[in-house]
Specification:
disordered N terminus, binds beta-D-galactopyranose, about 40% strand, 9-stranded antiparallel β-sheet, 6-stranded antiparallel β-sheet, single chain, mainly beta
Length: about 400
């Protein structure tokens, strides 16, 4: 890496740097985006295996700025304005690759092949039983979490800048070989992150396979609208466009049933402060150590529809989550601790961030009543999720 490297502006000056345009990731030619949307690429560091990781800084025409790395497609920082226009990084992350490797590889990350848990690390498909790595044991019950030991979060993806009209982004591609983490089929995956002039972070997921395989891709960014390490998210106000959820066992595996949320602490069909009912005497909250559940979205159309809304009253920041997916995992950071250092020298805390992961239900390959997650050769896995930022 060159000393004094500041990055190279790859979109924003050349207005139409389309997907796939070539550019020199090593050149020392940083320029200012000056109000125009831009993508600036620079080295972020190296994995412990020695792979170079690039950082893409996306500056949106609407003011939102995000830093994305091609290691796991992680969002390292995401700055949004509060109601006074002050930008703040509202995500949890680390300043270097070692932070992710040491403390938590899921922060801000793409998750695959299978977001969330598969019971006992096992499923049967077309008569064959597949065994996955066991890497998680909530309630002392074994499961395979987030794609196994080396999920898509731990891979350096091929990356290139995107620019179209006033939107900028990064395109991430990778191939997961047949048998990767026990899953059948070679899976070719493309994920595009876009930042639009309306302050929308749009994620387009695509995958194709050469053998039938489960696919359930998601994004695991933690938000805290007051800023990183600025306390818990219990004071944030959440809406979930979901009349039912999928109750879990003590192993955080759905039982296979859906339950109406009405009259329970899981009813976020109108805005609720997250902390208001979190200590209710409720078996599901005990199993999750708080909220760590999958809600069945009211829209099952496969079309982009509202899934969640989040608001924090002191800063005025809000966000809407829209998705084509049928479900959303709301996880309020119950496993987070104050042993983990943040990006700005302060330690995080229990429930210091929350994730809203659009997806299919956990363990769907073993639960035939749930919408299928099986991708077959010839079909294209395609989902879209948008995080729309604002302040009021
Ligand atoms: C979430 C999951 C949590 C926890 C977290 C990673 O998606 O719901 O239970 O495993 O990922 O720390």
């Amino acid at each position: 890496m060159k000393a004094g490297f500041r990055g190279v502006l790859v979109a924003g000056v050349a207005a139409a740097c389309a997907a796939g345009c070539s550019f020199n990731k090593g050149a020392d030619t940083a320029m200012s985006g000056a109000g125009e949307p831009s993508v600036v690429v620079k080295p972020f560091g190296k994995t412990k295996g020695g792979q170079l990781v690039h950082q893409y800084t996306l500056t949106g025409a609407g003011g939102v700025v995000m830093d994305v790395i091609d290691y796991g497609g992680k969002v390292v920082r995401l700055f949004t304005p509060d109601r006074a226009g002050k930008l703040e990084d509202i995500t949890l992350g680390f300043n270097d690759v070692a932070g992710y490797e040491t403390h938590d590889k899921y922060f801000g990350s793409l998750i695959g092949r299978y977001g969330n848990r598969i019971a006992n690390g096992r499923f049967t498909l077309d008569g064959t039983t597949y065994t996955l790595p066991i890497n998680n044991t909530p309630g002392d019950l074994p499961c395979s979490l987030h794609g196994g030991n080396t999920g898509f979060d731990a891979v350096v993806w091929h990356s290139e800048p995107l620019s179209e009209g006033k939107s900028v982004g990064v395109k991430l591609t990778m191939t997961s070989p047949d048998g990767d983490q026990g899953y059948p089929g070679k899976l070719d995956v493309t994920v595009c992150y876009w930042l639009t002039p309306d302050n929308v972070w749009r994620i387009e997921y695509e995958a194709v396979t050469d053998k039938a395989t489960p696919v359930n891709l998601t994004q695991h960014l933690y938000f805290n609208f007051k800023g990183e390490a600025e306390g818990t998210i219990l004071d944030h106000e959440l809406t979930l466009f979901a009349d039912s959820m999928t109750p879990v066992t003590k192993g955080l595996i759905p039982t296979g049933k859906t339950a109406p949320v009405k009259g329970t602490p899981f009813d976020f069909t109108t805005p609720w402060i997250i902390g208001a009912r979190i200590n209710t005497d409720n078996e599901q909250l005990r199993f999750g150590g708080g909220y760590d559940h999958n809600w069945v979205l009211n829209s099952q159309s496969g079309k982009l529809a509202p899934a969640a809304a989040l608001y924090e009253k002191t800063t005025g920041r809000f966000m809407e989550v829209w998705t084509t997916e049928p479900a959303i995992q709301f996880y309020c950071g119950n496993f987070l601790t104050d042993k983990v250092p943040g990006k700005r020298g302060k330690n995080l805390c229990h429930r210091g961030g929350l994730a809203l992961e659009t997806q299919h239900s956990p363990d769907s390959p073993n639960l035939p009543a749930f919408p299928s997650t099986i991708l077959r050769p010839g079909a294209v896995y395609k989902t879209v999720t948008e995080y729309r930022f604002g302040a009021k």
